[in-house]
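re the bet — no i am not wrong, look at it urself. input seq straight from the record:
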Amino acid sequence: MSYIIITWDPDDLKGIQATWEKLTAYHAETSKHFKEYFSDYPFSNREVKLKKHGEGGKTKIDLVVDDETNITYAHCISIIDRDGKGELESLYVDEALRGMSFGKKLVDRAVEWFEENNIDEFAIEVSVGNEEALGFYEKYGYKPFSYNLQKIK
């Protein structure tokens, strides 16, 4: 198999549906407090939130796809919001590709895009229960800044 990284049209969010659903299933499994939230979170709701989050700003989506089958194995969504704040909004790499540096390549592409757009600070949100991701991001200089507590009815 041969994998390539492509930039996807941010207006066509169906390109991330399969990997996003895998990420959401993972969060439903590992979440300490919001299992039901992730279990009952359809992609159609995610599309609406992503479009709203990127409104008035810019969105970049990179995908890792199998060059022969066009199956998507990883995604990275980066957003510059209307206030000029950058966020690596979502990152997922399928288990089959972990350890092959695709996560690093996707993060590097996001950072490069932020820098091209003169964004000096950018954030990453990691769900509680996914603490193993913290070590990955810390390798690239990211450090915990604050805790965001939520109550979801």
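see?? The chain has five helices and five strands. told u. also The chain has one domain: 3-138. so pay up
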